[in-house]
Every structure is written in structure tokens, then in C-alpha cells.
Amino acid sequence: MSNLVLHNYYRSSTSYRVRIALEMKGLSYTYVPHHLRHGEHLEPAYLAVNPQGLVPALVLDDGTLLTQSLAIIEYLDETVPEPPLLPKDALGRARVRMLAQMIACDIHPVNNLRVLTSLRTLFGAGDEDVVNWFRHWVNEGFQPLEKLLASSPGTGTFCHGDTPGLADICLAAQVTNNARFGVDMAPYPEISRIHAACMALPAFQRAAPQNQIDAE
């Protein structure tokens, strides 16, 4: 797989997910940044690439467009099977997808930039209101996630066993994003332990927001 182009933003947690997967698979790609806070993702040139105007977007060598981070990651996993990001057994795959979607579907969508911006523009929310909103929805998702991870025999060094996968990718990106909003991680020792294990890996480090060309 060659000539991949990743449209993304260094601080976007969904972009971070895809960068981690690309790094884990050992795939090179062209990094195209779009500054979300400057509205670059809404400019005509990018909308011509991705009509949804969101990041990440992965363009394959034949021009095919893929959007939505989980769809992109599963495509990469199916086309470049090593190292695997999902277990071989059906129950294991279901568990990993469950954990990943608790973050990707239940926490992230209500805390992404366009929602936080709408809180300000439509409802007059101030900085403190936005921070409290973000923390609230993280806690709503992390409380059950912590219990599931801490109580399951399927949890190992990582979310599922002793190798990182899709759930760990989502967890690491979310915890990294939490830091910008001062989320208290003390109630989540299992999540914190897994996050530390992820961040000890070169792929997660290379993909980290602070190590991207558009980092500020």
C-alpha cells in the first residue's frame, strides 16, 4: 500500500487514532494538515475532497476516499493484517469493538470541536461551561469503561490481552485529549495504566499530536 494521503489535524483525536494505526502497520503517508480552529476544513478545496468537511480523511493511491476513523482503521487492518488490531475470535472482536465504540460513539461525538463551538454560538456557553460539558461526558463514558476493564479477565497489559489494538487506539487518543480539558484521571487507574502502556510504544509516540508538523 503506497501513496496514501491523510488529511488531518494534529490535535484531532480521531486523526490521532488513524495516525496510530498507520504507524502500527508501518505504512508511510503524506500528511496534509487542516487547521480546524481556523476553519480550513470548510474551505472549498477540502470540501471537494471530503464533502463532510471533517477529519480524518484517507485518500488511497487510486483516489478512493475513506472517512470516519474506525472505518479507516478496520480497512487498514483488513488490507494490512499484521500486526492485527482485532482478535481472531468473534467474541474477542466484539469485545474490542464494544470498548472502542464506548469512546468513539458515546464520548467523542458530544465533545468534538463543532459541538463545543455550537455550545458557545447557539447557547452562549462560556469557557467554564464548555470545560464542564467536556468533563461530564468523559466521566459518563469512563466510569463504566473503567469498571469493564478492571473486572474483565480479557483485560491484560492492554484493553484486550497483551497486544495493543483498536480499543487501545481509541483509549489513548481520548486520554490525550482529556488532558487539554483538565479531566481528573485519578478515578480511572485501569484506564491510566493502559494509556501509559500505549504511550511507551514508538507507534503511539510518533503519532502523538505534539510530534506532528502542524503542532502548535
Topology:
Elements: E1 4-8, H1 13-25, E2 29-33, H2 44-47, E3 57-59, E4 65-67, H3 69-79, H4 90-104, H5 108-111, H6 113-123, H7 127-151, H8 166-180, H9 189-199, H10 202-207
Parallel strand pairs: 1-2
Antiparallel strand pairs: 1-3, 3-4
Keywords for this entry:
alpha+beta, globular, Glutathione-S-Trfase_C-like
How much β-strand is present in the residues?
5-15%
Based on Cα principal axes, name the global outline.
globular
* End-to-end CA span: 30 Å
What string, H for helix and E for strand, traces the elements in order?
Answer: EHEHEEHHHHHHHH
Whole-number average pLDDT? 97
Keywords: Isomerase
GO molecular function: maleylacetoacetate isomerase activity
Domain GST C-terminal: 89-216
Organism: Mesorhizobium album
Summarize the structure.
By secondary structure, the protein is of the alpha+beta class.
Task: Give your account of this protein's structure.
- Residues 89-216 form the GST C-terminal domain.
- InterPro entries: Glutathione-S-Trfase_C-like (IPR010987), Glutathione-S-Trfase_C_sf (IPR036282), Glutathione_S-Trfase (IPR040079), Glutathione_S-Trfase_N (IPR004045), GST_Zeta (IPR005955), GST_Zeta_C (IPR034330), GST_Zeta_N (IPR034333), Thioredoxin-like_sf (IPR036249).
- Helix 8 (166-180) crosses helix 9 (189-199).
- It is globular, with a radius of gyration of 17 Å.
- Strand 1 (4-8), helix 1 (13-25) and strand 2 form a beta-alpha-beta unit.
- It has helices at 13-25, 44-47, 69-79, 90-104, 108-111, 113-123, 127-151, 166-180, 189-199, 202-207; strands at residues 4-8, 29-33, 57-59, 65-67.
- The protein is of the alpha+beta class.
